[in-house]
Amino acid sequence: MDRQKRGKTGEENRPEEISQQAAVEGQSSGKTEAEQKKGVFGNSPSLSQDNGNMDPNKIIICEDLVKIYKTEDSEVLALQGLELTVDRGELMAIIGNSGSGKSTFLNMIGGLDRPSAGRLYVDGRNLFKLSERELVEYKKSVVGFVWQNNARNLLPYLNAWQNVQMPMMFSNAIKDKKTRALELLELVGMGHKKNSRLNQLSGGEQQRVAIAIALANNPKLLLADEPTGSVDVHTGSYILDVFRELNKSLGLTIVIVTHDRQLSKKVNRVVAIRDGKTSTEFIVRQNLIENLDAIAEFEDPHDEFAVLDRAGRLQIPREMLEELGVEGNRVRLMLEEGRIIIEAPPKEEEVS
Fold first, then answer.
1. Residues 147-184: pLDDT tens digits?
2. Measured distance CA(314)–CA(320) in Å, rounded
3. Which of 220, 222, 135, 140 lies closest to 173, judged by CA?
4. What is the pLDDT of residues 7-65, one digit of tens each?
5. For 161, left (φ over 0), alpha (ψ -120 to 50), or beta?
6. Do residues 96 and 273 touch, judged by C-beta distance below 8 A?
7. For residue 319, which of 28, 86, 146, 214 sits 20 to 30 Å off, Cα-Cα?
8. For the range 47-51, what are the long-range contacts, defined as Cβ-Cβ under 8 Å and sequence gap of 24 or more?
9. How far apart are CA 301 and CA 304, in angstroms?
10. Contact 309, 81 (CB under 8 A)
């Protein structure tokens, strides 16, 4: 894993200290502990809902997001100031090499892990301030997960419709749970396999049942971590078509993490993460949005853009730097006729 290590600094950004600060602020306002914990389950507004002037059209807003994993003698930065927004109803993919931070980011927005610093809002909720109880409710009602490993998606001793019904058992919102489960199986093209168990389904069929399970409690956001990683190319393409149909018919926001650039060509936007930061975005050309199915495998329907962070910094791909002959950490910038030109410095400047 090519994650960068850092010494024991930056302690001011630890989640536990943020929690302590929130507790102090609550005491200074004269609120009791019970009043501070009320949140969405009480009559007062939740701390997690202080979304200020957040754009209501954005379901994910991520700014300067940092995630640090600590070991006994070092700290590993999995995310290093990542910035990203996702529109409601968008179908997008996140790509990156192993260790780039893409799965870590998915775990952050899925409520499976806590960020270390930055800002992270999902559906108007501040994920830094969710209590444990609110976090459980968030995972039940806001997000649905599809894993690459089907053992995490399905229970082998239940058949397909029973697996889909299982998440509904923890909610009172759906009255006729079996009917809902059968409807979801039909939605993903698996109605004819409703009585089949895990060992009676192919890899692609298991993954489609897993998608139905993720939809069980009507989530606003569907997250898929390498959903095509365990199937062949043809089956993977079919699974992605299922995601596209769900996005189109239900208006569901879908975020897919994948390493497969061919599959990512079928979505409107692709974000590349490198070294824990957003480095590049690929936006589908407007004249091709309605015809992604007709694009040949060797064609790329996207235009590529480098991503500037709020400080005006961008990541230059390593292969470009190597092509320029850049060996150190300095380059020369020039502005010519409305273009920014980057050049490697003369050898003597680089040495000095």
1. 887 777 889 999 999 999 999 988 787 888 999 999 99
2. 13
3. 140
4. 444 444 444 443 444 444 444 444 444 444 333 333 333 445 555 457 889 999 998 88
5. alpha
6. yes
7. 86
8. 47/22, 47/126, 47/129, 47/131, 48/125, 48/126, 48/127, 48/129, 48/130, 48/131, 48/134, 49/124, 49/125, 49/126, 50/126, 50/129, 51/121, 51/124, 51/125, 51/126
9. 10
10. yes
Q: Tell me the two tokens of residue 62.
A: 């991520």
**How much is the CA Rg of the chain, to the nearest whole Å?**
23
Compute CA distances 274 → 55, 61, 69, 115, 338, whole Å: 26, 19, 17, 18, 28
Q: Token pair of 127, please?
A: 């994920």
